[in-house]
UniProtKB/TrEMBL annotation:
Gene source species: Streptomyces violaceochromogenes
Record-linked Pfam families: BKACE (PF05853)
Protein name per the record: 3-keto-5-aminohexanoate cleavage protein
Length: 254
């Protein structure tokens, strides 16, 4: 499964290709789905471009995207959008239009409560497990682990060489991941190497302007659709030489 991450915490300073309004997010989502994306992750934005969990902004954003595409749409619940855990819960309780799923970063304060409320409201949970944090350890001990939609294995190492090693370490730390599907992705300099690793391992992945502003050849990406098309090609090429978990040949002994 190829997910597109439309914008992340990017701003207008990151270039005109980054969609910041509901209308531009919807158009970008449509282009990405046409290019092969089968799931959407988006950060709704205030008029000044700040990530938000506002019920009003969420409703407008989700409605605009759903008017253009027929695939699942998820949002962030990152602490930067609402730092206070209690206020974050109040925002989610007030949502009038629900996303299909929402990411919860397990290393952040209030993650368990946020995930529990989302599940109570019928929203799928993507468990965001970041490399370089205690997220994997916390998730392993969580009673909610078996209930999440999927695990987002998020490699924060942006060095093209180091990111692959960090990804392998993160997957090892996740272990069985409560038996849930794993989506592996990197960011910036690590985005393409980690996407190729996901292809070799046969894991779901994602690409989009949240994770990468440049195409594999180094050219600036003109749209999320361009990134998804390139990501699908890179994934397919890597998958053609598929290997088993953590890089061992498929079927080999540990």
């Amino acid at each position: 499964m190829m997910q597109v991450c439309l914008n992340g915490s990017r701003t207008a300073a990151d270039g005109a290709a980054v969609p910041l309004t509901p209308e531009s997010m919807a158009g970008s989502a449509a282009g990405a789905v046409a290019a092969g994306a089968r799931d959407i992750h988006v950060h709704p934005k205030t008029p000044c471009g700040r990530d938000t969990l506002s019920p009003r902004v969420l409703a407008v954003t989700l409605s605009a995207i759903r008017a253009r595409v027929q695939v699942p749409v998820g949002v962030t619940t990152g602490a930067w959008a609402e730092p206070d855990p209690a206020a974050r819960l109040e925002r989610i309780r007030a949502w009038t239009v629900l996303p299909d799923h929402a990411s919860v970063n397990w290393h952040e304060p209030g993650a368990e409560e946020t995930a529990a409320l989302l599940l109570e409201r019928g929203v799928g949970v993507e468990a965001g497990i970041w490399s370089g944090t205690d997220g994997a350890e916390r998730f392993a001990a969580s009673p909610l682990g078996p209930k999440v939609l999927r695990v987002l294995a998020e490699v924060t190492d942006t060095d093209p060489l180091g990111a692959v090693a960090s990804a392998r370490g993160l997957l090892s730390d996740l272990g069985s991941a409560h038996g849930r599907p794993v989506l592996l992705h990197g960011e910036d300099g690590g985005a393409w190497p980690v996407l190729r690793l996901a292809g070799r391992l046969g894991l779901a992945t994602r690409i989009g302007l949240e994770d990468a502003l440049f195409l594999p050849g180094g050219e600036p990406a003109g749209s999320n659709g361009e990134l998804v098309a390139a990501g699908s090609a890179e994934y397919g090429a890597a998958r053609s030489g598929a290997t088993g978990h953590l890089g061992r040949p498929a079927g080999a002994s540990p």
